[in-house]
């Protein structure tokens, strides 16, 4: 699209009206009714105002460099407004607001909206979160104090189509541990076998050495079942917990998350512990070549599906993101460099805000959820957005509304009062009702929870689920928009995996809307890249084999 003076729709330029100031480019917003049209401009663009005959402000733009107007596809430009910050905030408020609550009782409506108002993010808070996330990324990448770890994964390249052979992948991140055999040809998985092993609570919360012995036992059982005891098998280990990586095959466990807490092995190398456990058994020829988390695996798997992939997101029980960073920006690099041009950076954004930088959006509901969590005062961002916690946030809000006598006649069932009883899967089902303009799922859920309800109660429950879900989608989108701006590529694919993204009926559409809003002019797409934690780990093991051969030849 050319400069404004050459724009095909000159009426759009003539209609530009302004509540004007001299804005910084990063804080420029424009509107087209309730839709987003984006103004991107040079710092040297000169602005002037004058009154026309209708006593309206007109903004006339004289260019020294370049000025673009891009309208959201399919939207006619009615009016574009360059906004002061306070007007930008107001416009954003409207753009991100959930559908209004409609109740027959106006008093109940007012009480519910008052109880939910702090859960709904304002435009001012959205912009502040964006600035804070960018700042925390910069501090983290430069090894300054930050809630974002910005960990170097030492994965310097993506699959190139030459990967072939048999590889093992281990996937540890939840109560089900997976061992996977992958056969690769031309960089594509042509055959795979998977076996699941349940990890009981006594292992997840007990001695860490016993946990790794169990993992080695599962590997041995799987290799034996595939008749591969005498075969050398390169292995990629998806270890979906925060770690400090000192190499592709060195990952120091920082802390456990989700339902795991084995304190005795915090601070130790996960790869070394797995190797030692496998060696103690001595019944398989497995070589652990790489450790990664599920987010990096998702990016790798996405790159196989679409070479434009440069961001990986996990939106499931937990949440995290990674992206391709320029190697010259990365200060933390143990060992010798080999001319790498890029590397995957694991952001560990679940901990975003653990240092207090997000306290301005924390509600009493969030504090209660945190107080009842396995590890308090940690993984702040994850507790706003992940599948493990969204249902619990909804439950806590519903209980508060019952206590205020504006829901279920002021009477809660024992089930509703039980922590963890309202899962995120229920939130997704209720949100499906909103999509379908139905109440069937909501009614069935409330019946199973043992609650007495009327039509207004159903509307309130749907409103709470929408509000909490929308906040999660918006928070993810804010941070993803920052990543797109940091990459500054002409076209980027974002690989996403996780149960929340897969099963929540509205998350993807909200994310598409909000990312476009917050990263104007950045071309992107969301790509479902399933099983990055499995296939991705095998592919990284194949990359590790290639790198090992290359380095041995130099």
UniProtKB/TrEMBL annotation:
Pathway: Carbohydrate metabolism; hexose metabolism; Carbohydrate degradation; glycolysis; D-glyceraldehyde 3-phosphate and glycerone phosphate from D-glucose: step 1/4. One of its GO terms (cellular component) is cytosol. InterPro entries: ATPase_NBD (IPR043129), Hexokinase (IPR001312), Hexokinase_BS (IPR019807), Hexokinase_C (IPR022673), Hexokinase_N (IPR022672). Residues 311-543 form the Hexokinase C-terminal domain. GO terms for molecular function: ATP binding; D-glucose binding; fructokinase activity; glucokinase activity; mannokinase activity. Its EC number is 2.7.1.-. The keyword ATP-binding applies. Residues 114-303 form the Hexokinase N-terminal domain. One of its GO terms (biological process) is intracellular glucose homeostasis. It catalyses: D-glucose + ATP = D-glucose 6-phosphate + ADP + H(+); a D-hexose + ATP = a D-hexose 6-phosphate + ADP + H(+); D-fructose + ATP = D-fructose 6-phosphate + ADP + H(+); D-mannose + ATP = D-mannose 6-phosphate + ADP + H(+). The keyword Nucleotide-binding applies. PROSITE patterns: HEXOKINASE_1, HEXOKINASE_2. It comes from the Eukaryota. Belongs to the hexokinase family. Catalyzes the phosphorylation of various hexoses to hexose 6-phosphate. This is Phosphotransferase. It comes from Reticulitermes speratus.
């Amino acid at each position: 699209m050319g400069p404004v003076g050459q724009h095909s729709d000159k009426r759009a330029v003539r209609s530009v009206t302004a509540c004007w100031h001299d804005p910084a480019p990063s804080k420029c917003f424009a509107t087209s009714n309730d839709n987003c049209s984006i103004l991107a401009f040079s710092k040297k663009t000169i602005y002037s105002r004058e009154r026309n005959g209708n006593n309206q402000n007109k903004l006339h733009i004289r260019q020294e460099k370049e000025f673009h107007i891009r309208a959201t596809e399919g939207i006619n430009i009615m009016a574009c407004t360059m906004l002061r910050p306070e007007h930008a905030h107001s416009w954003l408020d409207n753009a991100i607001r959930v559908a209004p609550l409609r109740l027959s009782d106006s008093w109940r409506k007012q009480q519910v909206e008052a109880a939910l108002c702090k859960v709904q993010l304002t435009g001012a808070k959205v912009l502040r979160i964006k600035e804070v996330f960018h700042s925390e990324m910069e501090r983290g990448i430069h090894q300054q104090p930050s809630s974002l770890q910005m960990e170097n994964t030492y994965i310097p390249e993506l699959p190139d189509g030459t990967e072939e052979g048999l590889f093992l992948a281990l996937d540890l991140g939840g109560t089900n541990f997976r061992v996977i055999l992958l056969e690769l040809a031309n960089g594509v998985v042509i055959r795979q076998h998977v076996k699941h092993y349940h990890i009981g609570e006594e292992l997840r919360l007990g001695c860490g050495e016993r946990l790794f012995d169990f993992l080695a036992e599962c590997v041995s059982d799987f290799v034996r079942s595939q008749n591969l005891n005498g075969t050398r098998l390169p292995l990629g280990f998806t270890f979906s917990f925060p770690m400090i990586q000192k190499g592709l095959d060195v990952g120091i466990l920082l802390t456990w998350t989700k339902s795991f807490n084995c304190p005795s092995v915090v601070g130790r190398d996960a790869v070394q512990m797995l190797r030692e456990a496998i060696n103690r058994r001595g019944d398989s020829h497995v070589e652990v070549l790489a450790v990664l988390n599920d987010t990096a695996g998702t990016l790798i798997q996405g790159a196989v599906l679409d070479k434009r992939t440069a961001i990986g997101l996990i939106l499931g029980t937990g949440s995290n993101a990674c992206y391709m960073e320029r190697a010259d920006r990365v200060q933390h690099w143990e060992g010798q460099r080999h001319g790498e041009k890029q590397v995957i950076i694991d952001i560990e954004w679940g901990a975003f805000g653990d240092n207090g930088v997000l306290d301005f959006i924390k509600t009493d509901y969030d504090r209660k959820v945190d107080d009842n969590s396995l590890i308090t005062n940690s993984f702040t961002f994850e507790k706003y957005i992940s599948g493990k916690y969204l249902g619990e946030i909804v439950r806590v809000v519903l209980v508060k509304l019952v206590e205020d006598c504006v829901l279920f006649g002021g009477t809660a069932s024992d089930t509703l009062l039980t922590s963890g009883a309202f899962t995120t899967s229920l939130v997704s089902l209720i949100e499906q009702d909103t999509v379908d303009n139905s109440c069937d799922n909501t009614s069935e859920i409330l019946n199973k929870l043992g609650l007495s309800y009327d039509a207004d109660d159903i509307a309130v429950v749907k409103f709470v689920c929408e509000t909490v879900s929308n906040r999660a989608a918006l928070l993810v989108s804010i941070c993803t928009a920052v990543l797109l701006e940091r990459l500054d590529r002409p076209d980027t694919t974002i690989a996403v995996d996780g149960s929340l993204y897969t099963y929540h009926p509205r998350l993807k559409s909200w994310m598409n809307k909000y990312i476009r809003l917050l990263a104007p002019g950045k071309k992107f797409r969301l790509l479902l890249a399933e099983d990055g934690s499995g296939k991705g780990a095998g592919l990284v093991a194949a990359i590790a084999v290639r790198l090992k051969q290359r380095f041995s030849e130099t």
